[in-house]
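Sample pair:
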Amino acid sequence: MFDGSMAMSFHSLKYPSHMMGNVHKHRILHRTMKNPILAVPPSSTLLQTDESGNLPESKNSSGSDAASTNSDSASLFINQATTVGIIGGVSVDSTLNFLKKLVQWSSKDGGDSLPFVLCSDPVLNKQLLSHERSHFPLLSTKRESSRMDHTPIVGNLQSKRAFLERSGVQCIVMPCHISHSWHDEISRGSSVPFLHMGECVARELKNAKLKPLEAGSPLRIGVLATNATLTAGFYQEKLQREGFEVVLPDKATMEHTVIPAIEAFNRKDMEGARNLLRIALQVLLVRAVNTVILASDDMHDLLPRDDPLLKKCVDPMDALARSTIHWAQSVEKGT
C-alpha cells in the first residue's frame, strides 16, 4: 500500500486508539486496535476529531488530562515546510485512497513521502452524506428531502481547517467532492494555501493542450457526478474559467441512468450500476467531449481499471494529489 520500508511513527495523544503497525514495501502488517483507520508513515499523524475540531476525550483520561492534551496538541505535531493537512470527507475509503496515492506518488522516486496530518470526524461524514442524499429524493428520508441548512457543515469544516492550521500544516486539501461546495467559505482567511480540486483538474486539462474533436468547435469537457455536486456548480465554474465548454448530463440521462445507477449501487447491484454508468458516459462522449470528469468516487470505482470508457475519464482526486505534490516540490525548491 505504501512504498518504502519504514517503521511507523505515531504520536500518543490520549485519544481513541487507531490501527497501528509496521509498514513494509507492498504490504502492511497490522496490529488491530479499536477504531481501525490506517498505518501511517513516519512524521505523520492520523486524527479522529469531533465536530468542533477537538480531539475526543479518552475514557481512560481525566478531564484535566484531556484538556491538556487538546491545548498542547499543536506543539506535538510535525511542523515541516511540506506538511499537508487533509480534511476527510463523506467517505473514509475515498479519503484513504487519496492518501495512498499521495504517499505512493510523492515517494515514487525513492524519496520520503510527504508528511501529513489527516483529520477524520464521523459526525462530518454523516452530515455530508445527508446533504448528498437530500439531492436524491428516492434515496433520502422525508426529513432529508426538505431543504437542508448547510451552516453546521460549513462550521464543522472551518473548525477542521483551523485545527490543522494550529497543528502546523503548511497546505490543506479536502479529498471530497461535496465539501468543495463550500470551499470559498471554508478557505476564507486561511493562513496557508488551501487547494481546490476543481481548479487542480481544470488546470491540468488546460496544460494538456487538448484539441477539439470537431473542427471549429470549442473544447468540450463533460462532468458526471451526483446531483449535489452538479448543483453546487464549482466544476463548471472552474472549467469555464479556463475556457472550456462544459457538457452536463441532461435531465433524461440523470433520471434514467445516473440516479438509477446510484440506486443500484446502494442495493449492491454492482453489475446493474456498472451498465447504467457506461450508458451515462457514452451519452456524454457522443456529444464530442474530449474527456469526462468523473466526479464521484463510487462511480469511478465501479468500472474495471482496463475499461475503455474509464480511459476517457479523469479523476479529480488524482489531479488534487498531483497538485499537492507539485506544491511541495515548489516549496522545497523555494519557488
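The first helix runs from residue 63 to 76.
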